[in-house]
Write a structure and sequence with these properties.
One of its GO terms (molecular function) is RNA methyltransferase activity. It holds the Pfam family Radical_SAM. It comes from Trapa incisa. It is found in: Cytoplasm. The structure is a single chain. The strands form 3 sheets. Strands 1-15-14-13-12-11-10-7-6-5-4 form an 11-stranded mixed beta sheet. Helix content is 28%, strand content 16%. The protein is elongated, with a radius of gyration of 22 Å. It is built from 12 helices and 15 strands. By secondary structure, it is an alpha/beta fold. It has a domain of 318 residues: Alpha-Beta Barrel (TIM Barrel), CATH 3.20.20. The site of iron/sulfur cluster has 13 residues, from loops.
């Protein structure tokens, strides 16, 4: 759910805006290990750019970021020994190997016991995978563990689900990381350093996205497949491993990279559970934010099963506009979405939802929109983030001028809303909100512009 991305400077209301192809060798595992090996399914067919909104895993052999990405030089920050060894790394998942990061702790403990080792060894392994500044990527990095246990892990377990492909550093310090997956597809993760110590990693949950939000570059890709829990978790592990020395502790995770997280809810909830485990990565649940375009049944399930934070990408105050710029609204209308939040949030303790609102010139930024927004969020414990739109190639929208964003913000604040402004981060490296990924030769279609907005789009682009 990319448009909620926070590689933007956050300002509280009251001031002006200051501002390689990888081939894995797969085999059919024993049935007891199947849950941990789902990602290994052989693939070999292409999917249409728009898929039904099921949560079933899907896959494709199509590489969505072409290999010309390989020609881009690695940035200077990519030379330290800590990650130099990954420069030409490949994931090689051997026959019958279990992927460790696909397991929650109780599953890992059970697997370790099945291999004939004590549960205590499982905890020692967990801490070295996720904690204690180790973030181990191979058995050799498991200092202090018993030799036989390490040998068993070398033979039967796989530590890595991702292979580092490139790191690009934007002028403002934002880093975009490209990872290759086991089937050769490429995903993007963003690190957003913050001088107040609130460093954030923005993770992807899918390769591409099926939602086709009209203002989003990732949406033009269509959906290729869901990421596994291991592929999601490892983005956060890599972020800490690569950048903790450089930028300090990475304390926040936002599921706002490529994909609609709740379309992949099973793996997203599992990945979030692993991220907040106290003996491991130990992110605070309130600092792990899952963003959605508004898949109502999955949103309900998420609120019931997870303690992590929720962001809803709203971006419009009428069904007419939202049906156009976020086609998911044709299935789950604004009223239903907001009523669901009104009913579900009080069941949770002290829980606030974050509404994301991307400001599109002449489309959703009128003073009437501001007034409607105030009444739409009535009765919902919430904060609102106003986001400056990041243009990309092929985009038909323009950003709302700064003064108008401030005026919009002031109306919301006067109406009693808690409202923030966020400016773009990392846009010179296409790392900003709504800019991740790369559409293929046949991008998802742009939808017909409602007649009353055609003039506004023309005027804002001239
Ligand atoms: S198209 Fe997908 S990634 Fe882009 S904003 Fe919509 S839900 Fe998020």
């Amino acid at each position: 759910m990319e448009m909620g991305c926070v590689w933007m400077r956050r300002m509280y209301s009251g001031g002006a805006i200051s501002a390689l192809p990888v081939k894995a060798s797969y085999s059919i595992p024993s049935s007891s290990l199947l849950p941990f090996l789902r990602h290994m399914s052989p693939v070999g067919f292409s999917l249409p750019s728009r898929l039904p909104l099921s949560t079933a895993a899907c896959s494709s052999s199509v590489a969505v970021v072409p290999d010309d990405e390989d020609s881009s030089p690695l940035s200077s920050s990519f030379s330290s020994s800590r990650y130099g060894s990954y420069e030409s790394s490949r994931i090689s998942i051997k026959k019958s190997k279990v992927l460790l990061k696909e397991m929650r702790y109780p599953e890992l403990e059970k697997w370790v016991e099945l291999q004939g080792f004590r549960p205590g060894q499982a905890m020692m392994l967990w801490k070295r995978l996720y904690g204690n500044n180790v973030w181990a990527h191979c058995a050799d990095e498991l200092e202090g563990l018993n030799k036989d246990f390490k040998r068993m892990l070398s033979e039967h377990a796989e530590f890595k689900a991702l292979s580092l492909k490139d790191i690009r550093t934007a002028a403002d310090g934002t880093r975009k990381i490209l990872f290759s997956l086991g089937d050769g597809l490429v995903i993007e993760t963003v690190i957003i350093p913050c001088d107040r110590g609130r460093n954030t990693v923005c993770v992807s949950s899918q390769v591409g996205c099926a939602m086709n939000c009209q203002f989003c570059y990732t949406g033009r890709m269509g959906l290729t497949r869901h990421l596994t829990a291991a592929e999601i978790v490892e983005q956060a592990v890599f972020a800490r491993r690569l950048f903790s020395d450089e930028v300090g502790s990475i304390s926040n995770v936002v599921f706002m990279g490529m994909g609609e997280p709740l379309h992949n809810i099973e793996n997203v909830i599992k990945a979030a559970d692993i991220m907040v485990h106290e003996q491991g990565l130990h992110f605070s649940p309130r600092k792990v934010t899952v963003s959605t375009s508004g898949l109502v049944p999955q949103l309900k399930r998420f609120l019931q099963e997870s303690n992590c934070a929720l962001a809803v990408s709203l971006n419009a105050t009428t069904d007419e506009v939202r049906n156009w710029i976020m086609p998911i609204n044709r299935k789950y209308k604004l009223d239903l979405l907001l009523q669901t939040l009104r009913e579900e949030l009080p069941r949770k303790n002290n829980y606030i939802v974050l509404f994301e609102y991307v400001m599109l010139a002449g489309v959703n930024d009128s003073l009437e929109d501001a007034k409607r927004l105030i009444s739409l969020v009535q009765g919902i414990p919430c904060k609102i983030n106003l986001i400056s739109f990041n243009p990309h190639s092929g985009s038909q929208f323009q950003p709302t001028p700064e003064e108008k964003i401030i005026e919009f913000r002031n109306i919301l604040a006067e109406g009693g809303c808690t409202v923030f402004l966020r400016l773009s981060r990392g846009d010179d490296q296409m790392a900003a909100c709504g800019q991740l990924g790369k559409p293929g030769p046949v991008p998802a279609p742009l939808l017909r512009v409602p007649r009353q907005f055609q003039m506004a789009l023309n005027a804002s682009s001239s």
